[in-house]
Amino acid sequence: GLTTATSVGLVRPPPLASAAPSLPGDRQGLPLAGGDLGVSRSHRCFPPSAATAGLAQDEFDELCFEFGIELDDVTTEKAIIRKEKHLEDEEVPDCDEEEVIYKIEVPANRYDLLCLEGLARSLRIFIGKEEIPKYTVSNISSESRLTMHVQPETESVRPYVVCAVLRGVKFDLARYNSFIDLQDKLHENICRKRTLVAIGTHDLDTLKAPFTYEALPPSRINFVPLKETKNFRADELMEHYKSDKKLKKFLHIIEDSPVYPVIYDSNRTVLSLPPIINGAHSAITLTTKNVFIECTATDITKAKIVLNTMVTMFSEYCERKFEVEPVEVVYPNGSSHIYPDLSDYSLEVSLSYITSQAGVKMETNEIISLLNKMQLHVKQSTSGDENMITVSAPPTRSDILHACDVMEDLAIAYGFNRIPETIPATQTEGRRQPLNLFSDLIRSQVAMAGYKEVLTWVLCSYDENFSLLNRKDDGKTSVIIENPRSSEFEAVRTTLMPGLLKSVKHNIDHPKPIKIFEVGDVVFLDDKQDVGASNNRRLAALYCSNNSGYEDIHGLVERIMKVIGIPVGIAGDVGDYYYLQPSHEPEFLEGRQCNIIFKQKLIGTFGIVHPESILDDSRDALSYKIDCGIAAFKVIFIFHWQFFVFIQRERERERERDFGNHFSVLQVCNSCNKLPHVLTYCSYIQVCLREGSAIIGVSTHVAALPPNLFFFFRLSVTHEFPS
Q: Residues annotated as region Disordered (predicted)?
């Protein structure tokens, strides 16, 4: 929707007032070339007053808001160049004119707004200056229709391809730049950096049909790639592009495949090596008249959307406006499909649903008029039900899937500012999640014990997660990142220890002792979850000094358990007790480590970190190189039943405080401990103190909560508990 992540483009002010889809000399105001937020230095100045047909900047800003987009910034080409090149204000960039450029933020699912053609067309339709265009497919005979034959080998690498032709296109420099820029933006958005779809555009007059889509070993593919002058074998080309800043990020898509996808014409001329590069032979220029568009994909639905977006946005420059020539794609099993499919998508929508969800009452005629502004055709349902309408979305509106999408467009066209404010029929009360509240209290108590909190990356290197901690990967625990951008982000952490050790490594010159902790999530593979993994809240602390610090970390563990209200016991005790027993964790030194057992379950471990994990010159880079003793502990978050009693009591007290009442102190169980020192954390605790007591009770039949629970939450806990 409108509040999701958005795609941002730089455009000059779009022409709004002309009823014609193309203005004389209008397309100097197109998206600038150069890809993501790039700027073309060759465009001439396009005054915003002419581009917006007299609309002032604030008026254009208001129009954008009404349409559901945002005028994010108004800048100049010189300012952008100065920022890109890090020039000082007094330095003049290599640009002749102070062109005004509008930076517009659009919804992420509106692919038709990623180029100025679509944006300007949509705004003109919205303000009633242009009719909704009718996109058509040329009616040509099967003998005249171009064909693309798909070979069976493509099934293993990139099984789908869709194609279309734009005939009689008239390019100028601005239109050409916009054409290339739209491909870049689609690649970054719906194409997911070419992994789902890769777009290839070619000068059809340099090629000879029919075409074939094949998958061949790299050594058998030879061609001159775009912007190159010599012939490359496909495997040589992959090595060549490893140093290319733009293309190297796409190599991983097919690099490890035994066969590479490739498109040939009937003369065995290479059109493209998707998703990497097009061939130089069929490169598009300003003189190109007929454009052949092919989209190879792993997702046929996304491929159709991308193809439809390309042809609908630029078919207005064809000799026959908004008419596209189809291409027949023949698959190995003999089936064939004709692309593009420019038919409207229709759905039945309840009038009562969209008006009630939008929060306004409207007549049917008003609804039809408003939806027409959003390029949606509306007619009465053929079912005969007066409450139902049939809504048809053009091929440019791939975001229209359900009735809720129609309702959203209706609300936009009506105007969000015009929707009356109402009191909800149900009353809800928002509060912090108990786990997050518990975590914050833990943090405060650990900090008061003298430990400093660190926040480290959830991602770490594979070695940090395993070999540096002397642990082995069983293949069933850790989430491994595919195609990581850096060796620092190869796996999702399964323990907080790597982050703490790395923090010490980079701060080893800090005065000793170094006492740090972290409260955060770790991730494990989990077949029971729909996403295949689950988060667990953990706590870990680390003590680094010239001595081992075992007794310091042991004291911290005891402090934590005490403030939670869990007394120490001995092995075999039944009840809410904890006890210690020898452990054999590989990241800790044998004989200097203990497991923490609660209700016969392992909830944490503490001990001296194994020297091999922190100082091993034989590992070279695979070592933290910390020449000090380190004690640490890791704890799974325990939700003791007394904690829930505390949370419930806190809510009751907060309600009483809201009404201005004082608190009464309840009698506490004999098992509760009283601390000689009391710290205030929240206002309701302060009220208890003013009443002369820091003890909180619950009821006569439930054990009371120890007063030191408030302080526990700030203790340094290095234990890890499953949430």
A: 1-31
> DSSP labels for 624-685?
----SEEEEEEEEPP--HHHHHHHHHHHHHHHHHHTTPPPPPPP--TT----SS----SHHH
Q: Where do the domains of the chain lie?
A: 6-129, 137-339, 345-418, 434-636, 649-713
CATH number belonging to the domain at 137-339, selected among 3.40.630.90, 1.20.58.100, 3.40.50.880, 3.50.40.10: 3.50.40.10
In single-letter form, the type of residue at position 444 comes to S
Chain segment 159-207, per-residue pLDDT in tens: 999 999 999 999 999 999 999 999 999 999 999 999 999 999 999 999 9
Of residues 418 and 721, more confidently modeled: 418
CB hemisphere CA count around 661 (13 angstroms): 9
Which single residue is written with the structure tokens 């991730």? Answer: 523
Render pLDDT for 358-398 as a digit per residue (tens, 0 to 9): 989 999 999 999 999 999 999 988 888 889 999 999 999 99
Backbone angles phi, psi at 622, to 5 degrees: -85, 50
Alpha-carbon span 394 to 398, nearest angstrom = 8
Total number of residues shown for the chain: 723
pTM of this prediction exceeds 0.90:
no
Of 3.40.50.1220, 3.90.1300.10, 1.10.540.10, 3.30.56.10, the CATH number of 345-418 is 3.30.56.10
93 cis-preceded (ω within 30 degrees of 0): no
